[in-house]
Design a protein that fits this description.
Layout: H1 32-47, H2 53-60
Length: 74
Amino acid sequence: MKFKNITYVNKPIGIQEPRAFYVGFSKKWPDAKGLRDRFNIALKEFISKPSNPRKKIFDKYGVPCPKLLFKECK
């Protein structure tokens, strides 16, 4: 087997820094600003649910919920 002496760590190492993620909308898309505004409204409604759905996503995939970015992670 080629490269049989190479190993890897199946886990991130080092400091886990919170990262922000962004959604982009092309300005060339018809009604791009309206789409952006509707997206922002839907996202705010989603994350304001008392069941903390955003935290549940982090928990589901076993990744740390970044306390510096999201209040529900505390």
